[in-house]
Amino acid sequence: MKFWQHFLITIISLISLNINAAPVELDRTAMIVNDGTILSSDIDTELRLIKLNAKQKKQPLPKEDALREQVIDKLILDTLQVQEANRIGIKIDDDRLNKAIQGIAKDHKQTLKQLQASVEKAGIPYAVFREKIRTEIKISEARNAFVRRRINIQPAEVESLANILTKQSDTTVQYKISHIQLRVENDEDKAKQKALADQIVRKLKKGANFSKQAITYSKGPKALQGGSWGWMRKEEMPTIFADQIKLQKKGSIIGPFRSGIGFHILKIDDVKGLETLSVTEINARHILIKPSIILSDEGAKKELEGFIQQIKSGKATFGELAEQYSQDPGSAVQKGELGYHAPEIFVPEFKHQIETLPVGKISQPFKTVHGWHIVEVLGRRQVDKTDAAMKNKAYNILFNRKFNEESSAWLQELKAGAYIENLEKN
User: Fold this and answer.
1) Which one of 24, 76, 126, 196 has the largest count of C-beta atoms within 10 Å of its C-beta?
2) Distance in angstroms (rounded) separating the CA atoms of residues 212 and 224
3) Where does the UniProt entry say this protein principally localizes (predicted)?
4) Could you count the other beta carbons within 10 Å of the beta carbon of residue 92?
């Protein structure tokens, strides 16, 4: 749950129940936490908010003493985290705070004025609300900074979990497969059959008919059926087939791979029930000119307009001009070429240009945070990212799991090393 959602739900509860904050007759320091304090009013306010929220949701609560102890523990941990944030210099400026509050309003389909009115109707001064959100952001930043460095995820862990997730996904996936088997009679025959298998795979990848190749060469049980095994789930396949299929898409050629019998080649004729992720990658080239004390924005733009005229008139090529003038050293040595990438890795203005430009067309000069550009799209391609997406999913699961574990450990270490005095017991 986002850091502000609990607080906003509580506000909504307050509004629904139409209860205003009770005045505080006397305030005093209840806890000392290192060089900070927790006031009695802080504890009472937190208790009241939790009770109102629980009443709205019809959630049972423990006895008053147990609940108060939980609230005090939370406030101690919050105070310690704020102290750590201050120690490493985390500051949340008004611009960032305003964007977060705008996000809260948007999430709950309110304008900023409506949100402010809701907060104040609940008896909470808007200034207090803003500082509460600022504190929550600061705590979140501190926790991220300290906990992330404690997390170590090994590639083998990601691979292992990705395989488990793949197997879970495979339970509903059906594959229509065809098979070619080349039998190895003896050791002397192995090299010959391997060479034949490689030759068949090359033909298949160039578009040769799999059924014809199977009938011609295969010694497998389905040779006369063109190698077709029909539709099967992985658990229904021979193990040597299932071990080779890892979410391949329709048309994939797998192999050759070896077994005790000989060499095998598989083709995925079709797939049912497999969710695949395909992304568009774009190859573009650009020329970057950076404004400076000497060169104004207008001057940089005019220089690029001159380059466009040179290219169109045939006086120079895009690559020659990029190599000579572009101030992006990484791409300049490649004649401005950036290679195939997903558009999302670029800044918004550049992303918009490469997504909307036809292949072969040069853009008009445009500005980004890096300077002024002209760009040409060289090509687009569809790339299957299903396997990468599964590994990314596995990484995120591992990260979240370890983050929660390490967060708890970090907080307990903070508390164990802190000076905490309960003045209520004195």
Assistant:
1) 76
2) 10
3) periplasm
4) 17
Q: Is residue 404 part of a domain?
A: no
Give the H or E element holding residue 175.
strand 174-183
| For residue 113, pLDDT beyond 80 | yes
Give CA–CA dist 245/225, Å, rounded.
21
pLDDT digits 0-9 by tens, 22-66: 444 557 898 899 999 989 888 887 787 677 667 767 788 888 888
Instruction: Give 50's contacts (C-beta < 8 A, 6+ positions apart).
Output: 10, 61, 67, 71
Euclidean distance between CA atoms 204 and 226, whole angstroms: 14
Beta bridge partners of 31: 38, 422
Kindly state whether residues 50 and 145 are assigned to the same domain. Answer: yes
Strand partners, 253: 267
Count, residues in the chain: 426
Are 250 and 329 members of one domain?
A: no
Contacts of residue 137, defined as CB under 8 A and 6 or more positions apart, other chains included, come to: 3, 92, 96, 97, 100
pTM comes to 0.50
Q: Answer whether 393's CB lies under 8 Å from 165's CB.
A: yes
**Same-domain pairing of 139 and 176:** no
Strands (E), 121-220: 174-183
State the Cα torsion 125-126-129-134 to the nearest 10°. -140
